[in-house]
């Protein structure tokens, strides 16, 4: 657990609310508000979410050790782009390996150049839209 995390681990499963719920077709805001209001405060917990400044590189100097996905670019779940970005990383790495094989270091450097630039553009857009 990160040092600055405000979550406390719990070994007890959270109790399930025993409220009559309408069918999903008729579920509306009033139903959601009632469920939230009926939730005992003792079972509500805060989950810490952190942003991180973009890394300037995602590979070792030789290009043979690489970061992909959240290891390279952890992001707040608000935009819903985490898995998509990880798949894009994997695709970019596979393409670079295909072009540069058997020089894995060159493929790693090509992957890094392509993805760090593209990711930097996404971060600037994300900050502008979501800030």
Overview of the molecule:
With 131 residues, the chain is mainly α. The protein has a domain at 70-130. It has helices at 29-38, 70-73, 82-100, 104-130. α3 (82-100) runs antiparallel to α4. The chain starts with 28 loop residues before the first helix and ends with a helix. 14% of the residues are buried. Mean pLDDT is 77; it is low at 1-8.
Helices and strands, with pairings:
Elements lengths: L28 H10 L31 H4 L8 H19 L3 H27 L1
- Helix tally? 4
Low-pLDDT runs: 1-8
Structural class: mainly alpha
Question: How would you describe the oligomerization state of the chains in this entry?
Answer: single chain
Share in β-strands: under 5%
Order of helices and strands: HHHH
Query: Compute the gyration radius: what is it?
Result: 21 Å
N-to-C span: 27 Å
Shape: elongated
Helix content: 40-55%
Number of strands: 0
Largest sheet, in brief, is:
none
> Whole-number average pLDDT?
77
């Amino acid at each position: 657990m990160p040092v600055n995390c405000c979550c406390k681990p719990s070994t007890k499963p959270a109790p399930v609310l025993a409220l009559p719920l309408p069918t999903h077709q008729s579920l509306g805001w009033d139903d959601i508000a009632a469920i939230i209001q009926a939730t005992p405060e003792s079972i509500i917990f805060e989950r810490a979410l952190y942003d991180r400044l973009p890394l300037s590189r995602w590979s070792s100097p030789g290009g043979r050790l690489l970061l992909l996905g959240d290891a390279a670019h952890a992001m707040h779940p608000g935009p819903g782009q985490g898995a998509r970005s990880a798949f894009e990383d994997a695709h970019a790495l596979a393409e670079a390996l295909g072009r540069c094989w058997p020089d894995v270091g060159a493929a790693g450097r090509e992957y890094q150049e392509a993805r760090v630039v593209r990711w930097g553009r996404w971060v600037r857009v994300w900050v502008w839209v979501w800030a």
